[in-house]
Amino acid sequence: MSSYDYLIVGGGMAAAAAVRGIRSLDHSAGIGLLSAEGDPPYRRPPLSKGLWSGEKEADLPLPVDGAELLLSRRALRIDLASREVEDDRGERHGFRKLLLATGGRPRRLPELEGALLYRDLADYRALRRALEAGVQSVAIVGAGFVGSELAAALTRAGKQVDLITAGQGIGDRIFPPGLVEALGRFYAEQGVRLHAETSVKAQEHSSSGQQLLLTDGQRLNVDLVVCAVGIQPNSELAASAGLPVGDGILVDPFGQVGEQPVYAAGDVANFFSPFLSKRVRVEHENHADLHGELVGRNLAGAGEPYLEIPFFYSDLFELGYEAVGELNAGLRVVEDWKEPYREGVVYYLQGERLSGVLLFGVWEKVEQARGLIRSGRPFLPDELPGQI
Fold this sequence. Notes:
Number of domains: 3
CATH topology of the largest domain: FAD/NAD(P)-binding domain
Shape: globular
CATH superfamily of the largest domain: FAD/NAD(P)-binding domain
């Protein structure tokens, strides 16, 4: 049986950041990193962005200073009494402190049997191989971050893309309606066939490809179907050990799970945000880096609370944005456009409290947006235009 001072379950960006955090305070302790993926930790955002526009796989790996990599292994059980984790090879790994950075897995749609689920580097390779083998038309189900980015990337690569969403359009959960409509028109101009407010009713396979029957009556003939309808947190391992869960693994401000020597970080961690006044779970790169590193430091004894407001970003053909805090189309929004739906700032209000800022085509203003949210000051809607 192997044994480590710090055992990390998960091999994503939060796990790599946690190694960095541990090493900033503890330079010699034994670190084990047990991951179901066959690849060492790597940057995930390029899977739907840069890898389709010239970035290479060789640019993706993340440093894991001195950690022993236990790859292609799935953790099955946590024994808190003996402080051991058992993997799917029947091997047990002891720990002094345990970090769960188990992330999430793609949601499946039962009506899309055999669709490519797009989440990790292996999925990217599978899609790349399919395109190189002659796939010309792709249906992408889901118009959130990954679906909209992948639609842009594959269209630029010369493929015909049908983008299917049950919502009103691209980003309808976070964008105001006018921007959703404008993005739909913009994607159509680029050659993407957007099918909004519909879903797949049935799927038929044939030697020439696949036929999708949509709930609005349309039939689509495509070579390949990609499912990108979000992820669900991998919290079952924690739950089976009796640890507190609820839309992820519940952690305190330091990333600790209950009273055990167990911590959680990244996509799977559900934490209280003092700036949003509620528990949240964040699935973006910046949070994985910030939270992973801080929780790693806390494993090594730092005792630092997580007080960050992560930002996220996306590329939509030549359009793009950065955003801070909570973007929710159900909140009150105040739009301040310099050029409608090309360059402007959208503010999200919860009552009189600013909870999020969308910087659409506006760059290098993330810290200013964070400062407005951190201030906690009340805002009336007519006070917000011009703040950024």
